[in-house]
Amino acid sequence: MVKQRSDLMRGITITYRYDGDEAEWQEAVSSFIAAIDNDPAAAGKFTYQVAVADDGISRFHWGRWDSAETLAHVQSQPYFQTFAPKVKAFAGDTLSAVGHDITQKSRGW
Known about the structure:
By secondary structure, the chain is an alpha+beta fold. It is built from 3 helices and 4 strands; from the N terminus they run E-H-E-E-H-H-E. It has helices at 22-37, 68-76, 78-91, and strands at 9-17, 46-52, 58-65, 96-102. The protein has a 4-stranded antiparallel sheet, covered by helices on one side. Helix 1 runs antiparallel to helix 3. The longest helix has 16 residues, at 22-37. It is globular and about 35 Å long. The termini are far apart.
């Protein structure tokens, strides 16, 4: 077991396969990201990126946050409590979520 250091940014990588209604999926993701960006307690402290692989089915979500308090805040918000079950429904039994420490990153995004 790797010990987590408090000076490292935390993150999560979520992967799954989805080939359902693309408009429904896009709306769920867009609404969640807009809610983060419009939440003064999360904006700039919690970032979220989503990608679709070239196969059009494999989906990737990357979340990053600056502190346990920021994560707890986001997880307690209605927008998170709406989005998380949608991701689980989209993913079915293909969902994989792995928490991690971000040890290095480039400038920019």
